[in-house]
Design a protein that fits this description.
By secondary structure, this protein is mainly alpha-helical. The protein has 14 helices and six strands.
Length: 424
C-alpha cells in the first residue's frame, strides 16, 4: 500500500484493525491465564505441581496449534476465514470454562481455535506497506503496544471479577472479549490487504529457506525456547509467589493478587515509545544492533530481573517482600521483553518467502510452544525449592539464552539476520 493511503495515527488503517482485533484476543487470553493457576489450586483443589504442569501444557498447546493452523490458513482457508473460524472456536472455549466438568475440554477448544487465529493476524502487517515505506520498520512495535492494551485490562477486569464475584464471571468476561475482537475484525476488513493467491509459491533467488537460513532460525528458536522457560513463569510461579510471598498491603487496602499481572502490559505500553526514540537516536549515530544482539541483551535484562527478586527473597527469609519490589521486577522484565520478543517475531515474519507468511510466523510460535512446555516443567520445581534459589535458577536459564544469542551474533549468520534490528 502507498504511504499516501488514508491513515489512523500515522499508520495504515489496517494496522489499527489488526491490533484492536488482537487486543481483544489478548484480553481473552490473559484474562483466562490470569485466573488459571488460582482457579486450579483454589477452586478445583489441584496440587501445585500438577497445576503448574497443566498451565505450561496449555500455554504450549496454544502456541503449537498455530504451526498447523498457519499452513491451513495459507493453503486452504485464507487468512480472513481462518481468523473468523478460529476466533469463534476460542470464544466457545472461554464460555465453556464456566462449567467445571468441561475444564480440560475447554482448554483444548481454546488451543485449537488459537491455532487458526494467531498466525493469520501478524502475517498481514507487511502487506500494509510498500517495501520502501519507512513506517514498516516500526509497525511491529506499534502492533505490540496495541495488543498489550488487552493484556493490561484483562487482569484488572477478569481478575477482579474472578476474585470478587467468582471465577466463572472472569472466564465469561474473557469470552466476551474474544467476541468483541471478531466484531472489530469483521467490520474493518475493507482496510486490510487482499488475500494472497493460494498457490505454490515460485522459488525466488535469495528468498527461499536455504540451509544456512534454516539453521540460523532454528538456533534463534532454541534460544527463545530456553528464554521462555524463565519468562513464562509470570503467570505461573510468579503468580503463586505474589499470593503467598509478597506483602500486598497499601495502607488499609490489600492489592488483589491478579492486578500485578497487568503491570507487564502496562509497562510495555509505557516503555515502547521511549525505546523507539532511544533506538532511533542510536540509528542516527550508526550504532544500531543486529537483531540477535538486541535479543541477547533482552534475555540478559530478564535474567537481572529474576536475580533481583531471588536476592530479595533470600534476604526476607520467612518474611514477605514488599509489593513495590514486585512492581520493579515487572519494570526490568518488561524492558528485557521488549528487546527480545517483538524483535524475534518481526525477524521470522520479515524472512518469510512469498505466499508463506502465516506458515513462517507459525514457526516462531513453535519456539513459544517448546518454551512454554519448558516453563511448565521448570514450574514443577517450585514446591521443592525455596523462592530465592528458584528465582536464581530462572536467572540462570535466561542467561543461557542470552549467551546462545550472543554466540550466534559472532557467527557467520545470513546477511538478513546480521542487519540492523532497527529495520526488523
Amino acid at each position: 500500500m502507498s504511504a499516501a493511503t488514508p491513515t489512523w495515527f500515522g499508520q495504515p488503517r489496517g494496522l489499527t484493525i489488526l491490533f484492536l482485533t488482537n487486543m481483544w484476543e489478548q484480553f481473552s487470553y490473559y484474562g483466562m491465564r490470569t485466573l488459571l493457576v488460582y482457579y486450579m489450586t483454589k477452586q478445583l483443589l489441584l496440587g501445585q505441581q500438577w497445576s503448574s504442569f497443566v498451565y505450561g501444557a496449555y500455554t504450549a498447546c496454544a502456541y503449537f496449534t498455530p504451526i498447523v493452523g498457519g499452513v491451513i490458513a495459507d493453503r486452504l482457508l485464507g487468512r480472513r476465514r481462518a481468523i473468523m473460524i478460529g476466533g469463534s472456536i476460542m470464544a466457545l472455549g472461554h464460555f465453556m470454562m464456566a462449567f467445571e466438568p468441561l475444564f480440560y475440554v475447554a482448554l483444548a477448544t481454546i488451543a485449537l481455535g488459537n491455532g487458526l487465529f494467531l498466525p493469520s493476524l501478524p502475517s498481514q502487517i507487511d502487506s500494509l506497506y510498500e517495501a520502501a515505506d519507512p513506517r514498516r520498520g516500526w509497525a511491529y512495535n506499534v502492533y505490540y503496544v496495541g495488543v498489550n492494551v488487552g493484556g493490561f485490562l484483562a487482569p484488572l477486569i477478569c481478575g477482579t471479577l474472578g476474585e470478587t464475584l467468582g471465577w466463572h464471571w472472569g472466564f465469561g468476561a474473557a469470552g466476551l472479549g474474544m467476541v468483541s475482537g471478531l466484531i472489530i475484525y469483521s467490520w474493518g476488513q475493507r482496510y486490510l490487504p487482499p488475500e494472497p493467491v493460494r498457490e505454490p509459491a515460485k522459488r525466488e533467488k535469495g528468498r527461499g529457506f536455504d540451509r544456512q537460513m534454516v539453521a540460523a532460525l532454528a538456533a534463534v528458536a532454541i534460544a527463545v525456547t530456553i528464554f521462555r522457560g524463565a519468562y513464562e513463569q509470570v503467570g505461573n510461579t510468579i503468580a503463586l509467589w505474589s499470593d503467598t510471598g509478597v506483602d500486598r498491603s497499601f495502607g488499609d487496602v490489600t492489592i488483589p493478587m491478579t492486578w500485578f499481572q497487568s503491570l507487564n502490559s502496562l509497562f510495555v505500553m509505557a516503555f515502547t515509545p521511549l525505546l523507539l526514540i532511544h533506538w532511533r537516536r542510536k540509528a542516527e549515530k550508526g550504532l544500531t544492533d543486529s537483531a540477535v544482539r538486541r535479543m541477547s541483551k533482552g534475555a540478559l535484562i530478564v535474567a537481572c530481573a529474576y536475580a533481583m527478586i531471588g536476592a530479595l527473597s533470600i534476604q526476607a527469609g520467612a518474611g514477605l517482600v514488599g509489593w513495590t519490589w514486585l512492581a520493579l521486577f515487572f519494570v526490568v522484565l518488561t524492558v528485557g521483553e521488549l528487546y527480545i520478543l517483538p524483535t524475534g517475531l518481526s525477524l521470522f515474519a520479515r524472512l518469510a518467502p512469498p505466499g508463506y507468511g502465516a506458515t513462517t510466523v507459525a514457526a516462531w510460535f513453535l519456539a513459544i510452544f517448546t518454551g512454554s512446555m519448558t516453563a511448565g516443567l521448570v514450574g514443577t520445581f517450585w514446591s521443592h525449592m525455596e523462592p530465592g534459589p528458584f528465582f536464581f535458577l530462572l536467572a540462570g536459564i535466561a542467561c543461557a539464552a542470552s549467551l546462545l544469542l550472543w554466540w550466534m551474533d559472532r557467527l557467520d549468520t545470513p546477511v538478513e539476520m546480521r542487519g540492523s534490528a532497527q529495520k526488523v
